[in-house]
Amino acid sequence: MKERWAIIGLGFVAQRHMDAIEDVGDELIMACDNDIRKFDKITGNVFRCIDWITMISVPEFRLVDNVAICTPNHLHPPMIVECEKRGKKVLCEKPLTIDSKYLNLMNGTRTVLQLRHNPELIELKKQIASKHEVMLKLLINRGDFYWDGWKGNSKKSGGLLFNIGIHYFDLLQWLFGDLISSGLTLNEINHSIGRIEFEKGTVHWEISLKQPMDAQVRTLEIDNKQYNLAKRFENLHLKVYEDFKNGKGVNRYEAGKSIKLVERILGAGCTTS
What is the pTM of this model? Predict the structure, then answer.
């Protein structure tokens, strides 16, 4: 059945959402962003608004079935709550929240953790049976555009481990099961190193935003076998939308595992090793 969508936030990731809405046969009827220049991305008869509170309050919002939230991370909880109050189904970009205390305010909302739809990683998950030695390396580059915007503000983004790491911490717990312990040996604004003990794996990880542009690394190594996480797999957002329309997807309980893991890592502080 064709459903009608509103989208809040028209930054970089929003195009993937708009493409997926079209690809599943649905219709975008409302869009909101506080930067009117971003409305250039929108075509057709779409209601445009610069304030999300205004958008959810106008009569046209009653026609909306679903809402896609693609805004700065700290805004996710209030937007989710207000949209759910109005009877809308919500699909929110990661992370659902940068403070787990807000998870209990959410009901049916799903989130976007699309690495779970990566075909190679789905096959890998089937092979995880016993304890493994694991190394995760995310050595990437982020320039002035990143640091000058909301992503460079830890109060809005949650910082490095929430904004960059959450996808990968979700992947780790999805692959290797229940958390046993975690430790942090380096925690800088643009570089962190740590260790996590899961039921089925001991993970040493490093996330850095200081890597030269031509030498970036995104790898997962399991028992000396390396998987390239930089490989592009098209249409993973489409898979997320297909699940959403079928009443599936990553809910607050599943998403909360990696959110609480990041909180635990940060709360423990650094130790020498």
Answer: 0.95
